[in-house]
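User: Okay, second chain of the day. Same drill as before: sequence in, structure tokens out.
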Amino acid sequence: MSQRSEGRVGWGLVGTGRHADQYVAPAIQSATGAYLAAVCGTDATRTEAFARRHRVAAAYASLERMLDDASVTHVFVCSPNDLHEAHVRLCAERGRAVLCEKPLAHTPESAARMVEACRSHGVPLGVGYHLRHNRVHARAREAIAAGSIGEVLSVEVQYVHRTGTAPAAPLPVWRRDPSRVGGGQFAGTGTHAADLAGWLVADALVRLYATQHRHATGDGGEHIVQTVVGQLGGGALVSLSAGRMPHALNAVTVTGTKGVVRLTGSVGNRGGGRMEMHLADSTTTVEVVEHDVYREQIEAFDRAVRLGYRPSADGVDGLNGVHVAVAVERSLQTGSEVVVGELAPAGKE
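Assistant: Same drill. Structure tokens below.
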């Protein structure tokens, strides 16, 4: 009996890089009701090795050939940022549900074209904001929406990759080319921080100011931290930190008129963590065990496709994220506050 006849969704994966290897492929293979049917990449040897490593039946040299495979009904695009548009639009034209890694694209114009292509072809488009799939973040969002801490006054999110003391693994060539990445350094962990801040309180950044500090390590490497301060549409203030540093305690703090929600151990590539809700006369603590946020993202997207409702993070959320990353880069270049362009409310489902 084939995997398809067992009722599982067949996924195709575009890209064989580090993120796809460490997180995406294992998540698809372990997700309930899903399996990795095919993978495609530009290097045949690397793609075939990837397929063997992850027990994938088919390896293709192009997306066009992979989409000829009838077992592939869903596609996860994990290619370089500047290739996302071509890959997503091709999936839309071929009628495949598509989940694209963030940032959705390297420019807002490209992201907008992707959103329109999927809309016009009636194809679901999801974006890989995996922090939305951490159960402790969901608990915090529910508490905030219920008014437990009152009206939100401020949101702080830090998402920094730890570089350690040894030189980090070299970045792929495309990641060192600003024209291909889009949105500068903030397009990495920063766009996750901005998305999480908006999603937790169902609002979006409308204006921001950014600054940064770079520190050469002496071995050709670099530590960098970017800090963004801004304001949500509802008036609450936002503070975001992102980048690469040797030491970081990633955390989230949401302050309201009645209390504070504090999240620790939850911002990263693994799910789980601790939520503390401090009110005037009580403190509540919730511990969530470690879980695979990428697997839960895959399962959530599949449910959305099957049931016909909006993915947890869709193309509009992805477009908003690109606008924020571009606004941060513009603020760094001009040294001034920037209005974030063409935003739709984040976190509405």
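The chain has two domains: 9-130, 132-291+313-339.

User: Thanks, on to the next one.
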